[in-house]
């Protein structure tokens, strides 16, 4: 189970009868699942032999899907010395590293401004409620 594969080992398993994919640095043998995949066999074959982390997460798979995934695990991806991070292979074949994310820099979570906005909204709602409650009591 804890076998270690290099990305080039994985890239040799791309056919429907022998299909490996990498998700979150783990290697999964998806061969037995190709025909059962609710999202179709095509998408799995497209990412065969590659890192499909992004594709898998983009779909927002359920916990059930993650359970199935666990059952297909055959090992880990070997990290070579000097690697700047896990290599991401998109279906187009381009490779990037996670050190310099190609997309937006603020992927980590909500910015502080966002929290301030939520706090301000909450305060305003509270004040408005107090004001209305006060007026209602005075009218009675
Ligand atoms: C071995 C890896 C994978 C497993 C075990 C898996 C499992 C599943 C499961 C159980 C579902 C049903 C819905 C759910 O429970 O979330 C599903 C749906 C889906 N999957 Fe995957 N999946 C895998 C990889 C992928 C990849 C790499 C892609 C895309 C490139 C993908 C695309 C989809 C799509 C589009 C659906 C939605 C189908 C629909 O609702 O019509 N899946 N997958």
TrEMBL record:
<protein>
    <submittedName>
        <fullName>Cytochrome b5</fullName>
    </submittedName>
</protein>
<keyword id="KW-0813">Transport</keyword>
<feature type="compositionally biased region" description="Low complexity">
    <location>
        <begin position="87"/>
        <end position="98"/>
    </location>
</feature>
<keyword id="KW-0408">Iron</keyword>
<keyword id="KW-0349">Heme</keyword>
<keyword id="KW-0479">Metal-binding</keyword>
<keyword id="KW-0249">Electron transport</keyword>
<feature type="region of interest" description="Disordered">
    <location>
        <begin position="77"/>
        <end position="105"/>
    </location>
</feature>
<keyword id="KW-0256">Endoplasmic reticulum</keyword>
<feature type="compositionally biased region" description="Basic and acidic residues">
    <location>
        <begin position="77"/>
        <end position="86"/>
    </location>
</feature>
<keyword id="KW-1133">Transmembrane helix</keyword>
<dbReference type="InterPro" id="IPR018506">
    <property type="entry name" value="Cyt_B5_heme-BS"/>
</dbReference>
<feature type="transmembrane region" description="Helical">
    <location>
        <begin position="112"/>
        <end position="133"/>
    </location>
</feature>
<dbReference type="InterPro" id="IPR001199">
    <property type="entry name" value="Cyt_B5-like_heme/steroid-bd"/>
</dbReference>
<feature type="domain" description="Cytochrome b5 heme-binding">
    <location>
        <begin position="2"/>
        <end position="78"/>
    </location>
</feature>
<dbReference type="GO" id="GO:0005789">
    <property type="term" value="C:endoplasmic reticulum membrane"/>
</dbReference>
<dbReference type="GO" id="GO:0016126">
    <property type="term" value="P:sterol biosynthetic process"/>
</dbReference>
<dbReference type="InterPro" id="IPR036400">
    <property type="entry name" value="Cyt_B5-like_heme/steroid_sf"/>
</dbReference>
<dbReference type="Pfam" id="PF00173">
    <property type="entry name" value="Cyt-b5"/>
</dbReference>
<keyword id="KW-0472">Membrane</keyword>
<comment type="similarity">
    <text>Belongs to the cytochrome b5 family.</text>
</comment>
<dbReference type="InterPro" id="IPR050668">
    <property type="entry name" value="Cytochrome_b5"/>
</dbReference>
<dbReference type="GO" id="GO:0020037">
    <property type="term" value="F:heme binding"/>
</dbReference>
<dbReference type="GO" id="GO:0046872">
    <property type="term" value="F:metal ion binding"/>
</dbReference>
<keyword id="KW-0492">Microsome</keyword>
<keyword id="KW-0812">Transmembrane</keyword>
């Amino acid at each position: 189970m804890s076998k270690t594969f290099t990305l080039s080992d994985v890239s040799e398993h791309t056919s429907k009868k022998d299909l490996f994919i990498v998700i979150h640095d783990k290697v999964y043998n998806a061969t037995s699942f190709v025909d059962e995949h609710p999202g179709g066999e095509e998408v799995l074959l497209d990412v065969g032999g590659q890192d499909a982390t992004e594709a898998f997460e983009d779909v927002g798979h359920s916990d059930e899907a993650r359970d199935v995934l666990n059952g297909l695990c055959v090992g880990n991806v070997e990290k070579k010395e000097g690697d700047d991070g896990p290599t991401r292979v998109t279906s187009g074949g381009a490779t990037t590293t996670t050190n310099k994310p190609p997309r937006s820099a603020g992927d980590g979570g909500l910015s502080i401004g966002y929290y301030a906005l939520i706090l301000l909204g909450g305060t305003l709602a509270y004040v408005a409620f107090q004001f209305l409650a006060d007026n209602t009591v005075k009218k009675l």
